[in-house]
Automatic annotation (TrEMBL):
Keywords: Hydrolase. The lineage of its organism: Bacteria, Bacillati, Cyanobacteriota, Cyanophyceae, Nostocales. The keyword Hydrolase applies. GO terms for molecular function: hydrolase activity. The keyword Signal does not apply. It comes from Mastigocoleus testarum BC008. This is Zn-dependent hydrolase.
Length: 259
């Protein structure tokens, strides 16, 4: 398995000879409803659009996951798997192969990779977006992704999982508290899933943010703090803090199944 972190929530996952582009923001700025004054993300380094993408995987329909300027640039014939909310976005853009997954539904990519949607982040009072469990069918290696740190207890049924990509630090707002949940929530999911490797997402990369919202955001904890949490709880999970834009191999060991 090879991974490339592409800033913010964006990843290129190479698994089972397939290239999966996850929540891509690769071109232009990141805003919500065009309100630059409220929030604006800018890339410090341009990220080239990866070639030979087999699948686009979208966890949410919000702009920081289904980034319209990026999706406009990508080949609209690439298969897309997304939450129902994300599927609406790519349908409006003219994508031709769209697979909308509700929670606990699965999609299999060319007989090689199984993708299962699991409950993810709540958006408003009624909508819960997707997390995903990816399984490389030949080896059985698994990867779990949830970009805001909302982990359904139902995940315990899928343990163990080899690789977890999720926030490892908190991002909080006054009075509201953390809306990106790392630290204790990441520890909890590590205890449930016993991953070999964990990687942070959502709050890194070569980007800068400005606007009214940013003035109130507060980061709580560090990746180093999280490593200490794992150690204190007798977990041997390796934490990789990747450099943005650099492809690297995640070396995994086959687990010994008990009789």
């Amino acid at each position: 398995m090879h991974l490339t972190y592409l800033d913010s929530n964006s990843w290129l996952i190479e698994i089972g000879s397939k290239k999966i582009l996850l929540d891509p923001w690769l071109v232009g700025n990141l805003t919500f409803n065009g309100a630059d004054w409220f929030f604006k993300g800018s890339k410090l380094k341009e990220r080239p659009i990866p070639e030979n993408i087999d699948l686009i995987l979208l966890s949410q329909g919000l702009e920081d996951h289904a980034h319209t300027p990026t999706l406009k640039e990508l080949d609209h014939n690439i298969q897309v798997v997304g939450s129902p909310n994300a599927a609406k976005v790519v349908k409006e853009l003219g994508y031709t192969q769209i697979n909308s997954l509700d929670h606990n539904e699965t999609f299999t990519l060319d007989g090689s990779i199984e993708i299962k949607a699991v409950p993810g982040s709540p958006i408003g009072p009624t909508l819960v977006e997707n997390g995903y469990i990816l399984t490389e069918l030949e080896t059985g290696f698994t990867l779990y992704y949830e970009p805001h740190g909302y982990h359904s207890p139902s995940l315990k049924e899928s343990a163990p999982i080899d690789v977890v990509i999720t926030p490892l630090i908190n991002l909080a707002l006054p009075l509201v508290g953390p809306f990106i949940k790392g630290q204790q929530k990441a520890l909890e999911v590590a205890q449930w899933l016993q991953p070999q490797v964990m990687l942070p997402t959502a709050a890194g990369g070569d980007v800068e943010f400005e606007g009214l919202l940013v003035k109130f955001l507060k980061a709580e904890g560090t990746v180093t703090d999280f490593r200490s949490l794992l150690e204190k709880n007798n977990l041997t999970t390796q934490v990789i803090d990747p450099s943005a834009g650099e492809r690297f191999e995640v070396e995994l060991k086959q687990r010994v199944l008990s009789a």
